[in-house]
Amino acid sequence: MRGDDLKIPNRVKESIDTGIGAKHPVDMKTSEGLEPLCSEQGRGSAKYPCSMETSEKRMADPDCPDTPHWRRILIIADIEGSSRCINRNAAAFLTREWALACRGMSLDVAAVVNALFRAGVEEIRVKDFHRTAWNLFPGEIPAKARVIQGYRPGPVPGIGDPGGAEAVMFLGMHAASGTDGFLAHTLTSRISSIVVNGRLLSEVELFAASLAPYGVRPVFFSGCPVACRNAEEAVRGIQTFPFPKGAPPPDVSAWRKGLAEAAVAALSNLCTSPFQPPGPVHAAVTLRDGPDAARKAALRWGFHFEGGRILLRAQEMNQLYLQLIRLCYLTPAIEKILPWALPAYNLWGRLGCLWARRVSTRSEAPP
Ligand SMILES: [Zn+2]
Questions:
Q1: Are 120 and 58 within 8 A, CB to CB?
Q2: 288: CA distance to ligand 1 center in Å?
């Protein structure tokens, strides 16, 4: 994902500033809305933890009248952890490997979208979230889903409007900077590590936190095995499905079937809350280019700098995300022209995506 936009509407700013509470933009109805609804609280079995009222039930699975619980889903799709991303070139831009990876990513997403609709999900938004945010081929994805490409003006950084999403699923994700995962990075490969409260920070935490003010619960995650471990450690209760990177590659068709089944199973995942870890959040950012680069980047934004590390402090994970967007993608001058630069950037991405579709269609490589 590349950062783009800092136009956050007042209502979201307020909820970031004050934490999830009185100004929470989502009507949580009860205090239970912020707590996991899992079987720890005695609701149902481990396989089907849901025991909602009849009006909440959807008959997706004849064995379980309770599933699916979540009916409006946001999918955030990245490429590194998707099925045809085989090397660094495949996550780059305007390379043949990338074009093929785009088709693979699109088919992974399509498999999940098809399965979710079959399971009774009513509304799906898919947010393309890799590099230019123009990687998915919408023609491959059921038209009933809304595919959102390019970066949008707020309210959620990079995502825009999360709509009425109740739960978010992360597909094709990568591991955190500082881990040995496949193409591991957090926001940019220029960062060698971000340590937050003593632990390596992964993107799922930032993205999930940005959706927390809307009550969106992170329920499912797929990526390389290290990425899945990162997600499980950071987001309590999230369900994962790994793609085994490295040789020999798995049978991709069979893997996609498993991915889709795992995503459907996560529709009854009631074990997660909107992700808002307790603050304050202390982050130490180390850049690959060394202390001089870190010092320069820190001074640009007035961040603290100590021993080669940029030190950030925020009350909430959301605030840290905004600071990291500035640090990783922007300069004060670029931030000023962003309203004009963003459409040009989106056009560049759109043209690249058209090119990728043509190249991948001509290719004889397997999907
Ligand atoms: Zn990516």
A1: yes
A2: 18
CB burial string 296-317: b at 16+ within 10 A, e below: ebbeeeebebeeebbebebebb
Cis check for the bond before 142: say yes or no (omega within 30 of 0).
no
* Residue-range definition of the domain harbouring residue 209: 46-51+70-177+203-277+339-362
Ligand 1: distance of its center to the CA of 145 in Å?
21
What's the gap in Å between 77 CA and the centre of ligand 1?
8
310 Cα–ligand 1 center, Å: 23
User: Does any domain span residue 229?
Assistant: yes
pLDDT tens string 168-221: 999 999 999 999 999 999 999 999 999 998 899 999 999 999 999 999 999 999
d(CA 350, CA 194): 31
Structure tokens at 145: 């889903």
Look up the pTM and report it.
0.83
Instruction: Domain count for the chain, please give it.
Output: 1
Separation of 329 CA from ligand 1 center, angstroms? Answer: 14
Residue type at position 247: A
| CA–centroid distance, residue 92 to ligand 1 (Å) | 9
With H, G, I as helix, E, B as strand and everything else as coil, classify residue 296: helix
Specify the DSSP element, H or E, that contains 207: helix 203-211
77: which residues sit within 8 A by CB, 6+ positions away?
Answer: 105, 108, 109, 126, 127, 128, 129, 130, 135, 136, 171, 172
pLDDT tens-digit series, residues 108-129:
999 999 999 999 999 999 999 9
Residue 245 domain-assigned (yes or no): yes
The set of residues, in sequence order, having a beta carbon less than 8 Å from that of 190 and lying 6+ positions away, is: 287, 288, 289, 293, 328
What's 102's domain CATH number?
A: 3.40.50.10780
Distance CA 63, CA 265 (A): 13
